[in-house]
Design brief:
Strand content: 25-35%
Number of helices: 6
Number of domains: 1
Shape: globular
Bound molecules: uracil
Low-confidence stretches: none
CATH architecture: 3-Layer(aba) Sandwich
Mean pLDDT: 95
CATH class: Alpha Beta
Distance between the termini: 34 Å
Order of helices and strands: EEHHEEEHEEEEEHEEHEEEEH
Amino acid sequence: MEGRMSTNVHVVTHPLAQHKLTLMRRADAPTAEFRQLAREIAMLMLYDLTRDLPLTEQEIETPLARMKAPVLAGKKLCLVPILRAGLGLVDAMLELVPSARVGHIGIYRDPSTLDAVEYYLKVPEDVSACLVIVVDPMLATGNSACAAIRRLKDLGVENIRFACLLSAPEGIAALTAEHPDVPIYTIAVDERLNDHAYIVPGLGDAGDRLFGTK
Ligand code: URA
């Protein structure tokens, strides 16, 4: 399902994920369809991102016999969407991992400097003991992702993965340079950023398309 670009970047090459991303990119996809596709693609993304989670065995009883069966072991999962577009992926991820914790980090891009400005943070008390998945549909400049991950590391989090739908080479370079320990999961890597730091060809403003605000 997965192709690797460099040591840090995992491209989710599953045909369903690739197909759904193409449908999302289309400028004429209505809000409801875009949102539904985001949910579906988020599940495929999480499926891939969790494929190496450790398992242990638990003794259970089926209707026919006792057996030792695999169950998840290891750290609790905590999903941290970067507000607001990250919210569009989290509910679907929770359907796959209902016991995951959820933290929220609010970061906006200053339109003139493109710097990341934090305006909200609420994470579980035991976040430092979790495997944290930072979720944002678009890895553009990488400023928001880097700032969110920096903040989580300041809180003591050691195990972090970053999940996005689309990434730009510039964002991958920035995130890899500042946080080489954080694997990046993406459905596609596009050509470049434009002068307004939008990903080209991209899919437009993910937040606006998810929430119908433009
Ligand atoms: N954020 C978006 O929503 N889209 C882009 O292309 C870049 C950042």
